[in-house]
Write a structure and sequence with these properties.
Strand content: 15-25%
Keywords: NADP, Oxidoreductase
Organism: Brevibacterium metallidurans
Protein name: Aldehyde dehydrogenase family protein
Pfam family, one: Aldedh
Mean pLDDT: 95
Family: Belongs to the aldehyde dehydrogenase family.
């Protein structure tokens, strides 16, 4: 089988290292090891599992510099942002370690007169995680931490461009003291997922974070095999500015939020919906900020404009923008790759993006800002909801009640009021519509791949 996994520096396009794809025999052996280890790991006391996950959190913190450098090379993340991702990942492991016993506690049921009833939470078995390249550590932590705390075991198929970070994460779990089969990294192909892992009765479910297309394909295979799925897919999140006392500051907040990870985040605010009375000043500020941005080495402190994850991703992004402009949108900034090679692209500001244009419904996965002018709350809500996605949203106003009123009308899994969207270990993460199904993070994360077993005890 040909090599599928390789490290390619997106700043230069240079292939740094290649990793062989697993053989079918290796995949089946990993499945067997994961299922066998489940018997041991699921019977390990919750307090002991929590202690080991606490150690995982500590190792992430201790190795932050090294881990950030790895993903800089794999997918171009600026080192300061990489350190932030590592810190968040550490917090996630610690959060589930600290709360595992409380989240798994028996839940009494009210009502039975002839006995006592409760819900007992039990792990279900070996799970498959399929994770993307844009947040190599964080995406894994969202899936792995709650499920390892529950007592499930994990096979993890990472993105083909993240083989080093994938390998290191497996090593961290072993270093922390988890049994070797509790978390197994597999360099699997898509065909091996469909033909070997999902049909195997030893696999009990799959969680995927990635594209709509990948989510639909995996969900179809899982459905054929009666396996549960959690899917975190794309987003075209609205960022609604109803009013502000400082337009320039609001524009800066939005621009910095949108440029995080060079715009490569599912819950990045991709559509800026601005009320008419502040629109012109806001648009001027955003356009000026985009034109001032210049490409920087991803390792430099304060770097905001790193390369996209790959040259192919940069080419696709530019194609989407150019197609949208050719269909009648107005391009105020950016629109092409920088000279000098690599995957650097200019930050884009678009207006007049209308239905039927490519950029109206497609997710622009890069440093693109689409700005809309609206004249009323009703128009803002209608535009915000006119998308096949429903991941997150943010609403800003000096009148909190107004912001909450508008936010309550948004069809999304998450709404942030007077705060940019962001991930925190204690806030459930997930969407509706074509943004996926299920929740990660927060107390809801441990209610996904779990057997909520009813226990009824009749009175004697």
């Amino acid at each position: 089988m040909s090599t599928l996994y390789r490290v390619t520096d997106p700043a230069t396009g240079e292939v740094v290292e290649e990793f062989p794809t697993a053989t079918d025999a290796e995949i089946l052996a990993a499945l067997d090891r994961s299922a066998t280890t489940f018997t041991q790991w699921s019977q390990t006391p919750v307090a002991e599992r929590a202690r080991l996950l606490t150690r995982v959190a500590e190792i992430y913190a201790e190795r932050a510099e090294e881990l950030a450098e790895v993903i800089r090379l794999e997918m171009g993340k600026a080192v300061p942002e990489g350190k932030g991702e590592v810190a968040l990942s550490s917090n996630i492991y610690r959060y589930f370690a600290d709360n595992a016993e409380a989240f798994m506690a028996d839940e009494p049921l009210r009502g039975p007169e002839d006995g006592t009833a409760w819900i007992r939470r039990k792990p279900v078995g070996s799970l498959l995680g399929i994770m993307p390249w844009n947040f190599p550590y964080y995406q894994v932590a969202r899936f792995a931490a709650p499920n390892l705390a529950l007592g499930n075991t994990i096979l993890l198929k990472h993105a083909p461009q993240c083989p080093r970070s994938a390998k290191i994460m497996e090593e961290i779990f072993i270093e922390a003291g988890l049994p070797e089969g509790a978390y197994i990294n597999v360099y699997a192909s898509n065909e091996q997922v469909a033909d070997l892992i999902l049909p195997d009765p030893r696999n009990q479910g799959v969680s995927l974070t990635g594209s709509e297309r990948a989510g639909a394909a995996v969900a179809a295979e899982a459905g054929k095999n009666l396996k549960k799925v959690v899917l975190e897919l794309g987003g075209s999140d609205p960022y609604i500015l109803l009013d502000t006392a400082d337009v320039a500051k609001s524009a800066k907040t939005f621009f910095n939020t949108r440029m995080g990870n060079t715009g490569q985040a599912c819950n990045s605010p991709k559509r800026m919906i601005v009320m008419d009375d502040v629109y012109d000043e806001f648009l001027t500020s955003i356009t000026e900020a985009a034109k001032k941005a210049t490409p920087e080495v991803p390792g430099e402190e304060g770097s905001r404009l790193s390369p996209l994850s790959s040259v192919a991703a940069a080419d696709r992004f530019v194609e989407q923008v150019q197609d949208t402009v050719s269909q009648g949108a107005t391009l105020l900034a950016g629109g092409k790759k920088y000279d000098g090679g690599g995957a650097y692209v200019e930050p884009v500001v678009l207006t007049d993006v209308e239905k039927g244009m490519r950029g109206y419904y497609e997710e622009l996965f890069g440093p693109a800002v689409i700005v809309y002018r609206v004249g009323s709350e009703e128009e803002a809500v209608e535009l915000a909801n006119d998308t096949p996605y429903g991941l997150g949203a943010a609403v800003f106003s000096g009148d909190v009640e107004r912001a909450e009123r508008v936010g309550a009308q948004i069809d999304s899994g998450m709404v942030f009021i007077n705060a940019p969207e962001g991930s925190r270990e204690y806030l459930p993460f997930g969407g509706v519509k074509r943004s996926g199904v299920g929740r990660e993070l927060g107390p809801l994360a441990m209610d996904e791949f779990v057997n909520k077993q009813l226990v009824f005890q009749k009175n004697s």
